[in-house]
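Q: Sequence in, structure out?
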Amino acid sequence: MVPFARGIPDAPPMASNDGKLVWSSRGVPAPKPAAREAASPAACGRVRVGLERQGRGGKVVTVVENLPGHPERIEELARALKARCGAGGTVKGRVVEIQGDHRDRVVAVLGSLGVAAVRSGG
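A: Exactly. Output:
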């Protein structure tokens, strides 16, 4: 085996679950697919609608977590929520953030769209 520039010896390649080669200096196997699926946000349960505040007395954002479905579907839901609330917002992974306190309205809109949502927090 030829050492790297840092003096770490080459390790044998390991195949990951998606067929790509993964190189590891410790020979630790890649996690099993079932473990990754169980840790996904969609598997964690119901859709939660909460509130986050930025800093002390700062701006308020309504946060919708654990949305099910494909990322394109989440984008469509976010677009519908922003239009119904008359506010801006963003999508970060499976989380939708809407500017302002719109928790009750978001829960009602999601219910009308067929997504069971629960208001969380105070």
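The helical segments are 33-38, 71-85, 103-112.
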